[in-house]
Amino acid sequence: LGKQVSGISFITDALNDYTDKLDDIFSTNDICAATVLEVDHSNKKVYVSLRTKDVKDKRITSYEDLSPGTVVRGFVKNVANNGVYVALGRTVHALVRVSDLSDSYLKDWKQYFKVHQPVLGKITKSEGENQILMTLKQSEINSDS
């Protein structure tokens, strides 16, 4: 952005299509067009979007952008003992409980999920920033309810 200023773009603010790989689209020190989303003066950070008009995945900025039954794509943020945390936006995350990871029983389920892995899921609950639940079960993603 300037000699002393650089921008930070979270993966959901960088990709138009979440099935793309970040490394296939951008390289370190690439010069690209960006839109400033937020200036964090206290931490001296500028958050930018690198997305263009050809957006396949809607930008999610709040739990209010989600409702039960909405099918969304995101990225695995963390694999924990209680399930998988999925980044749906820079500040919006959902929990996929172990019981909602798959239609099939996965004995060693953690081996199937890696940080930054793209996932497709359906929102089952959205009642606050830390109260978003989703399922990755294909039977529920493909159902009308």
UniProtKB/TrEMBL annotation:
<dbReference type="InterPro" id="IPR003029">
    <property type="entry name" value="S1_domain"/>
</dbReference>
<dbReference type="GO" id="GO:0032040">
    <property type="term" value="C:small-subunit processome"/>
</dbReference>
<keyword id="KW-0539">Nucleus</keyword>
<dbReference type="GO" id="GO:0003723">
    <property type="term" value="F:RNA binding"/>
</dbReference>
<dbReference type="GO" id="GO:0006364">
    <property type="term" value="P:rRNA processing"/>
</dbReference>
<dbReference type="InterPro" id="IPR012340">
    <property type="entry name" value="NA-bd_OB-fold"/>
</dbReference>
<keyword id="KW-0677">Repeat</keyword>
<dbReference type="Pfam" id="PF00575">
    <property type="entry name" value="S1"/>
</dbReference>
<keyword id="KW-0698">rRNA processing</keyword>
<feature type="domain" description="S1 motif">
    <location>
        <begin position="1"/>
        <end position="51"/>
    </location>
</feature>
<protein>
    <recommendedName>
        <fullName>S1 motif domain-containing protein</fullName>
    </recommendedName>
</protein>
<feature type="domain" description="S1 motif">
    <location>
        <begin position="69"/>
        <end position="137"/>
    </location>
</feature>
<dbReference type="InterPro" id="IPR045209">
    <property type="entry name" value="Rrp5"/>
</dbReference>
